[in-house]
Amino acid sequence: MGYGFKIIVEGDYALFTRPEFKVERVSYDVPTISAIEGLIKSVYWKPAIRIVVDKIIVFNPIRFINIRRNEIKCKIPLSSVKSQMKGKGSAEIFASEQRSQRAGMLLRDVKYGIEFHFELTGNRSEHEDECEEKHYNIMLRRLRNGQFFRQPCLGCREFSVKRMEIVDDFDMSLIDSELEGDIDLGFMLYGLKFDDGGKPVNGDWENPRFSDIASPLYYRPHMINGVIDVGKYREGIIC
Fold it and tell me: Could you give the CA distance from residue 184 to residue 187 in angstroms, rounded to a whole number?
């Protein structure tokens, strides 16, 4: 049995933020691997499995749009939330006092094909019958039924996925002619490598504490006729 999946995702807008821009939000031309992994984890994820993206197919031409968004300059400290839960103090911010308007360069009218599989990590195996087939069947059922734990999004939470569908294969004839040829996408963020390896530093899964210390990983993919063969470039990942 194969344990890979192929899905189609569509959205009106997407924002895969380039880290080199500090203030304004500017999107990469295509999704980052970490954004795709987060989208899939919205459907199903456990510490016992690791999502591995194999290919990304870009169907629609790459189009940008500029907008301005209201953002909050700060966030509520976790300590304030915990204090309020205990009846001590309050956890609040006033948007009218902390609002800041920022420009953003987004992608619009996006459609991607995503091919991925998962691997067992050995972390927190809660049942004796822990196996790939079990997780495969759960993921397959949730994708077919359109179930998710939180709304899947395309980079930012406000840009939610409009349609997600599992397919047997991709119709490559639907790739726009503008994407023909070899397109060098430059260095892109692949993801973050956490020092704790996804395991609680205190060794307690019931009350876990993670280090949150991570190093960014980059890779330099080429899009060939609309297809990014992520597995081909995985060996070239650099810190």
Answer: 9
Burial class of 220 by CB neighbour count within 10 A (0 to 12, 13 to 18, 19+): middle
d(CA 69, CA 72): 10
pLDDT in tens, 82-104: 888 888 878 888 877 778 888 88
